Amino acid sequence: MRGAPTILHLDMDAFYASAEQAAKPSLRGKPVIVGGLGPRGVVATASYEARVFGVHSAMAMAQARRLCPNAAFLIPRFALYRKVSDSVMRLLHTLSPLVEPLSLDEAFVDLEAGGTEATVEAARAVGERLRTDIRAVTGLTGSVGLAGSKMLAKIGSEQAKPDGLVIIEPGTERDLLGPMSVRTLPGVGPATAETLRRAGIHTVAETREAGEAELVRLLGRAHGTSLFLMAEGRDERPVVAERDAKSISAEDTFDVDVTDRTRVQLEIARLADRCVRRLREAGRSGRTVVIKVRRYDFSTLTRSETLRGPTDDPGVVREAAARLIDSVDTTAGVRLLGVGVSGLADYTQEDLFAQAAQAAQAAQAAQAAHEALEGAGHPPGPERPEAVGERAEEASEGAGKPRHWLPGTDVRHTEYGAGWVQGSGVGRVTVRFEEPWSRPGRVRTFAVDDPALEPSEPLPLLRPDAGPGPAPQGEAADPSPDGTADPAEGMGQGPREAEGPDGSAGAGGGPGQGPGQPVTSRP
What is the 8-class DSSP label of residue 203? Predict the structure, then answer.
């Protein structure tokens, strides 16, 4: 671990929710919760306005609605989030060649590898410039932690939230960590925390006082030794520029347990196709096909099949997944299904030959099955399983309008322009027409099958002609010019779902300044 603060950790503030507030002027300064739809939805990101009601990430959506019923509940728009994330990651790469992304909104940077002087003053200047550049490029805010290790830098960014910067200076690490919960340390999950609790260990200081030998006795040599070093404030993990994915997968949780065997087969085929799309987008191929099945009682099992060679052929993956699901009894009900590909490799000529052979095998098997069934007069199951059961965003060309307009969906009307869905029900859909750089817009209602209304791609958060960006997230939006009700009310009718905060439930500030305390900087 380096003493100087040369490791930077960036965490975008309530990323998904902040992006939605930036995109929708009428939601600025109001509680926003982003996630999936349905009774089994889980919060992924909540705005700080929603967090004051106790809403946090991984919370059941039903509970979030009870705690904050007037929030705007929106589906996630990953196409937008990825574009914003790409812009942020490009900024990080200007600081150093060693950038380790952890997710769309979080990354470590080794400033020393980028030539930054190993001093508190130089680190502060880089962190402040980064925060300014992020706001200028995306219109959003991020919190920065700077320290001599990854663990401490991440703790610093948590303390800096929202929209702040915290530097943990050399020599302050033990005092800073001491009163914190042992769950603060990397690698300490619920099971490890419970083991330590039973031994009377609750804080980092108590972990350190227990000693390495006791921790090894409780947790085993590798885990115990690592935990003791972390409690001492020592973290030797380097920033790794490339985190090579071990697998690529797609999965869905169902609102109601699926018991129909044909439906299960259709979902597996759809998930296999989605998995292959992600595989191709990553420029990879894989050798092992895996399915995941979570049953009605939450028991989870996996099945896998290793192919003769790497592939990215949808027919091959679909056929393998179909064979695997045939070996699983799903009659009692399934709450989650997934399809993945592991044993990843880059495209090679060998892959192409293997794919051709596998595709030929699959075609021969399908032809044989078809011929065998012709005498029976009807094929079992759907004729084209790959075209059935897709989500609205995966619908094939010519599939027509989505049957349901989900809250947060981008739309465009031939007369009124760009807008987003506030809610729908009983054959009607309510749309607010506004753009990220406009004032809060008007609300209008249409029939769900109105031919003038079409789904559209997300607008950029900043005006394309480099005009003014969205208002600061802390400012409340101006009242709607048409005097309509608060846009956070009545967001959709019937079941709704969202994802929640990517950080902790509270918007805690940084520690106070003084001898032995981290250096804190805020706007």
Answer: B
Q: Note the helical H segments in 139-220.
A: 150-160, 173-177, 190-198, 204-210, 212-219
Crossing angle of helices 15-23 and 78-93, rounded to 10° = 110
CA dist 193 → 152, 179, 182, 200, 213 (Å): 19, 15, 7, 10, 17
Six-digit token string for 48: 């700080």
The residue with tokens 């947060």 is 408
Cβ burial of 171 (10 Å; 0-12, 13-18, 19+) is exposed
The 3-state DSSP class for residue 221 equals: helix
pTM of the model: 0.72
Q: Which residues of 115-142 are buried (b: 16+ CB within 10 A; e: fewer)?
A: ebeeebebbbebbeebbebbbebbbbbb
| Contact status, residue 306 vs residue 286, Cβ threshold 8 Å | no
Residue 511 CA to residue 397 CA, distance in Å, equals 54
Sheet of 142-147: strands edge to edge?
Answer: 99-103, 106-110, 7-12, 142-147, 165-167, 519-521
How far is the CA of 455 from the CAs of 33, 42, 459, 496, in angstroms?
21, 25, 12, 19
Cα–Cα–Cα angle for 436, 437, 438, nearest 5°? 95
Helix (H) or strand (E) holding 178: none
Task: Tell me how far CA of residue 54 lies from CA of 45, 475, 501, 516, in angstroms.
Answer: 12, 21, 11, 32
478: CB partners within 8 A, 6+ apart:
25, 439, 440
- The catalytic residues are 106
CB 216 within 8 A of CB 195: no
Q: Where do the DSSP E strands lie in 262-311?
A: 284-295, 300-311
Mean pLDDT of the chain: 81
Asked whether the predicted pLDDT for residue 503 surpasses 60, the reply is no
Q: Residue 118: which H helix or E strand, with range?
A: none
* Separation between Cα atoms, residue 77 and residue 17, nearest integer Å: 10
**What 3-state DSSP class applies to 112?**
helix
End-to-end Cα spacing for the chain: 30
CB 358 within 8 A of CB 311: yes
* Pairwise CA distance, residues 386 & 316, whole Å: 12
pLDDT score at 179: 95
Structure tokens at 227: 């935990």
Q: What are the tens digits of pLDDT across the range 50-63?
A: 999 999 998 999 99
